[in-house]
Specification:
Strand content: 5-15%
Number of strands: 10
Largest sheet: 8 strands, parallel
CATH architecture: Alpha-Beta Barrel
Distance between the termini: 13 Å
Structural class: alpha/beta
Number of helices: 9
Strand order of the largest sheet: 8-7-6-5-4-3-10-9
CATH superfamily: Dihydropteroate synthase-like
């Protein structure tokens, strides 16, 4: 196995801070949606969403990822105005409170990303890796961080059969390299780009396992890797647990991912993961 190269990962500068990768970072998920696969409907009210956001920060989140459109398999698209209605008030409130951690906007729409960045977000988390032709321009204009994710198709169709890859890791890497070049061509600085292999997005059970075990092979240009297994179906296949009961399995997947080079873990339950990540980080450092 190729050993992780965490010490070589370039920092990611943001508007008022910088993401450093001397240890794994935790991205806490805040879904202000009625239909997300894990917590849909729980945080649609502003008070509940704010309370959850502050709790995630208290539990140790290094980044908050706010999303207003479900990306679960089969999810239908949400209109721009509705997505804005869901996410902008929360982002504005968090920014005004000076919560002290960067805010990421989980969206595939350039219009939503732009409004969110104006409201106080500093990272775009784009699961479509720039399918919106204006997204790269928005990231360049606001000098935001930019997460580029590999996905087969769109959420509505990504799990349609057959799901087949000739070279799983090679195809994911190439997809992300192409998206990265597109971002650079638009003026996005290389050190603002974060790579996400897209666990569960157009992948079968065995694909998710292979990605986790070969995560470091996806890296290029010393870019950080984001890994998002939280409560996903492949963990339920292993444990036979329902979605809400997969936090322990999520911790195990994240520990394995760190030992294979993950730099950011995107999870629902931040508190459940911090001690495990400290141990995994120490073990990874000892490998170098």
């Amino acid at each position: 196995m190729q050993k992780p190269s965490a010490l070589a990962i370039q920092p990611c500068p943001l508007k008022h801070t910088q993401l450093e990768f001397s240890k794994p970072l935790v991205m806490g998920i805040v879904n202000v949606t009625p239909d997300s696969f894990s917590d849909g409907g729980e945080f649609t009210q502003p008070e509940a969403a704010l309370k959850q956001s502050l709790q995630l920060i208290k539990d140790g989140a290094d980044i908050l990822d706010v999303g207003g459109e479900s990306t679960r398999p089969g999810a239908e698209a949400v209109e721009v105005e509705e997505e804005l209605r869901r996410v902008i008030p929360l982002i504005q409130t968090l920014h005004e409170k000076g919560v002290g951690v960067p805010i990421s906007i989980d969206t595939s729409k350039a219009q939503v990303a732009a409004r969110a960045l104006e409201a106080g977000a500093s990272i775009i988390n784009d699961v479509t890796a720039l399918q919106d032709p204006e997204m790269a321009d928005v990231a360049a204009h606001f000098q935001s961080g930019l997460v580029l994710m590999h996905m087969r198709g769109v959420p509505r169709t990504m799990q349609s059969k057959p799901i087949a890859y000739t070279d799983l890791i090679g195809e994911i890497r190439k997809h992300l390299q192409n998206a990265t070049q597109k971002a650079r061509d638009a003026g996005v600085a290389e050190n603002k780009i974060i790579l996400d292999p897209g666990i569960g997005f157009g992948k079968e059970f065995t694909h998710n396992l292979e990605i986790t075990n070969r995560l470091e092979e996806i890296r290029f240009d010393k870019r950080p890797i984001l890994y998002g297994p939280s409560r996903k179906r492949f963990l339920g296949t292993i444990t036979n647990k329902e979605t809400k009961d997969r936090d322990a399995a999520t911790v195990a997947a994240c520990v394995a991912a760190i030992l294979h080079g993950a730099d950011i873990l995107r999870v629902h339950d931040v508190g459940a993961i911090q001690d495990a990540l400290a141990v995994a980080s120490a073990l990874r450092q000892n490998q170098l």
